[in-house]
Amino acid sequence: MFGAIGLVLAAIMVLAWTLPAAAQGTKVRLQLKWVTQAQFAGYYAAKAQGFYKAENLDVTIIPGGPDIVPEQVVAGRGAEFGLNFLPSLLSAREQGVPLVNIAQIFAYSGMRQLAFKASGIKTPADFKGRKVAVWFGGNEFPLLATLAKYKLDPQKDVTLVQQPFDMNLLLHKQVDAAAAMTYNEYKQVLDGGVKPEDLVVIDFNAEGTAMLEDGIFTRADWLHIGKNKETAARFLRASLKGWSFCRDQAAACVDLVLKESPVLGKPHQTWMMAEINKLVWGPPAPKMPGKMDPEAFKRTADIALKFGVIKKPAEPAAYTHEVWELAQTLK
Question: What's the order of all strands across the beta sheet hosting 159-162?
């Protein structure tokens, strides 16, 4: 009798120890491209609103920074999921890193080229003979593709200037045009006292030379182990719910981000949240949010090949629709 009771007690103790771990769900980590800001609000919302928990996931969000390369982190098993621009993924794959894009969160590019109307610049064709600032290290390729579209030689027809991570060159009129993200540097220019009507904004999306940004990727080998594909689908489904929440409750998402990091301040994060929502949700609204558009992939891959980001044409296997499709059908 005592032996039976002892076995029951032991089973209860084992259950007591295992229940908390099970309740936490499957542990996964997301490596962000940059520091905590509204650019990543959808993931913080998914965590705070319990969307990850509802999918039986315990998600740790890891902020990035200037010395963090998400592809390296994921390849080194420091995180299951990473977030970065598509050209970086294509470059890593060409170097033998087995990564795959499982979802394209930003349907549109936030990169622009700004100029003062008073400069006489109206279109990229007017960059001829001008000083044009841009961030190097991979950010210059949409500009180079645009110059090529207008048959401008970047070595002869324009003077390309290395742009720091501020807008002082443009504000002090030391260059004729400068790069800006809609959700960050454009706001810096306005905060510098410039009125929107005094600016010309070159939109690479409209020019057909934009490259895809902020896609979710993972290791291709990890994806095919056990139930990892299902885990990825649940992560994606919850993340998209987080982005839907930020579309509908932008102010609440700004507060979530500020709770994690108050560095940029509420006015800037509020601006960023509004602009980020445009990149995710449009207009025009993407037909299937989060699903890679093959035409947009090809455009990005072609630009990456033309300007030496990659030396060989990108493989179709660089992205998969399997995780997105599974996320629609999982119960």
Answer: 159-162, 131-134, 177-181, 111-116, 199-203
Looking at the structure, tell me whether residues 92 and 138 fall in a common domain: no
CATH number, domain containing residue 228: 3.40.190.10
pLDDT in tens, 165-204: 899 999 999 999 999 999 999 999 999 999 999 999 999 9
For residues 170 and 235, state if they share a domain: no
Q: What is the pLDDT of residue 136?
A: 86
224 to 110, 205, 227, 254, 326: CA distances (angstroms): 33, 34, 8, 36, 13
- CA quadruple 215, 219, 225, 231: dihedral sign: negative
**pTM of the entire predicted model:** 0.89
**Could you identify the residue written with the tokens 């992560």?**
235
| Residue range 70-103, pLDDT digits in tens | 999 999 999 999 999 999 999 999 999 999 999 9
At 23, is the pLDDT very low, low, confident or very high (cuts 50, 70, 90)? low
Cα separations in angstroms, 127 against 141, 150, 274: 16, 10, 30
Q: What is the rounded distance in angstroms from the CA atom of residue 172 to the CA atom of residue 195?
A: 15
